[in-house]
From TrEMBL:
Residues 4-424 form the Amidase domain. The gene is gatA_3. This is Glutamyl-tRNA(Gln) amidotransferase subunit A. It comes from the Bacteria.
Length: 451
């Protein structure tokens, strides 16, 4: 953890003194952890960087304020991939986060600290951010539920940015019901985030109402074959996914094979990801909003040398070198390709009459500690389209000496915009049928791990 909340105990004691709040605040005293790129008034927000150590925003992020109003007790800020730029959750401020299911492996990223805290029973639930993979990758690696909502459903105000085109934030939880509860609170229109205007009227009265054991009956799910790989290192994930697809079918889903190389993740990552064009301007504006930020811009952070250089150097220096950034003519061409891909995905839904797409979040098991990034991730489809996606536990690889339960594998379900309720229903039905949640043996069990 990067910082513990000095007021958390007092907040819990206040609930003890006034138990009537339990009936009026939907997240009453729920112990949460936040990824350390969410602004908090009483704790620093550092993005995991020594260069930003002690940076204290003036107020809570919009989503944090909503969580507090609902009664959540924020215990701490979790370690993360520094500045949310990568997939192995290593930072100069907090070091390397270890996967509690296999201490020789990473926990995914960038929200890996949150994922580990929730998986290891250090908190009931938590939050992450997802520019390409970074809520769903830790969900996959830590046997959790991770929800990336439709872009604009949850405000990004007060969250350290990476990309205005691709960023989203959302919950990481041990159960689908907890994900629905957090989403209910976090979603909503924010006057300071124009993107959320699109979400006006899109939040149902109850996401929990979608959680039905038979929700998969008759659902048409497109199995995206381009997002399954075929090399020996992919066999463990493919085996787990085949069993998960069989369970979906047994639960009543109709599986439709989608053979379409437009979904190829390697190509999409190489040709359409616009983070490097957008990061510098957004990051500099964010730093300007923090009264005591130790660095005033990206150039200053790079000059300080106080960051995890092996993991970040290439991206940071490349982003700083883009003199024209979002004014670059090439950038517009990338946005045009993103728009075309978004339209194509929507057309696949329409032509095949699909309710969701299904695929492994990661084509191979989460990588060992020491590698600089997680290879073969598929989160780019949601990252580019802005469509909602939920990652749920699909199973485990075979047990080994370092992974006594096996390494967790996650399955993504991706839907059309504003269909979070439907996705939560599918995820819940699968969760109840498969019952794949297992607490890690490396961490103590606190109370019941069923919540």
């Amino acid at each position: 953890m990067h910082a513990q909340n000095p007021t958390a105990l007092a907040q819990a004691e206040a609930f003890d003194k006034d138990p009537s709040r339990l009936a009026t605040e939907p997240l009453a005293c729920m112990p949460l952890v936040l990824m350390d790129n969410y602004n908090t008034a009483e704790m620093p927000t550092t993005g995991g960087s020594k260069a930003l150590e002690g940076a204290r925003p003036a107020e809570d992020a919009f989503a944090v304020a909503k969580l507090r109003k609902a009664g959540a007790n924020i215990l701490a800020k979790a370690n993360m991939q520094e500045l949310a730029l990568g997939g192995v959750s290593v930072s100069s401020l907090g070091g390397q986060v270890r996967n509690p299911y296999d201490l020789t492996r990473t926990p995914g990223g960038s929200s890996g600290g949150t994922g580990v805290a929730v998986a290891a029973n250090l908190a009931l639930a938590g939050t992450g951010s997802d520019t390409v993979n970074s809520i769903r990758s830790p969900a996959s690696a830590n046997n959790l539920v991770g929800l990336r909502p439709t872009q604009g459903l949850i405000s990004l105000s007060g969250v350290m940015p990476v990309s205005k085109t691709q960023d989203a934030i959302g919950p990481l939880t041990r159960t689908v019901a907890d994900a629905a509860a957090l989403l209910q609170v976090m979603a909503g229109v924010d006057p300071n985030d124009p993107l959320t205007a699109k979400g006006e009227g899109q939040v149902p009265a109850s996401y929990a109402a979608f959680l039905k054991p038979d929700a998969l009956k008759g659902a048409r799910l497109g199995v995206v074959r381009a997002l399954f790989a075929t090399k020996p290192e992919h066999e463990a994930v493919n085996s787990v996914m085949q069993a998960a697809l069989d369970r979906l079918r047994e639960a009543g889903a109709v599986l439709v094979t989608i053979d379409d190389m437009a979904f190829d993740a390697d190509t999409l990552n190489a040709q359409d990801d616009v983070q490097s064009y957008e990061f510098k301007a957004l990051f500099n504006a964010y730093l300007a909003s923090v009264p005591n930020a130790p660095q005033k811009d990206l150039a200053g952070l790079i000059a300080s040398g106080l960051y995890a250089k092996p993991a970040l150097d290439k991206f940071l220096t490349g982003a700083e070198a883009r003199q024209t950034g979002m004014q670059d003519p090439e950038y517009k061409a990338w946005l045009d390709r993103i728009a075309a891909f978004k339209a194509h995905v929507a057309s696949v839904f329409a032509s095949e009459r699909l309710d969701a797409l299904v695929y492994p979040q990661q084509q191979r098991l989460v990588v060992p500690i020491g590698e600089l990034n997680q290879a073969d991730r598929n989160g780019i489809v949601a990252g580019l389209t802005g469509f909602p996606a939920i990652d749920i536990p699909a199973g485990f690889s075979p047990p080994s000496d370092s992974a006594p339960l096996g390494v967790p594998v996650g399955m993504d379900l991706l839907g059309l915009p504003w269909t979070e309720g439907k996705l939560l229903g599918f995820a819940y039905a699968f969760e109840q049928a498969a019952k794949l949640r297992r607490p890690p043996q490396s961490a103590p069990t606190v109370g019941s791990d069923s919540k």
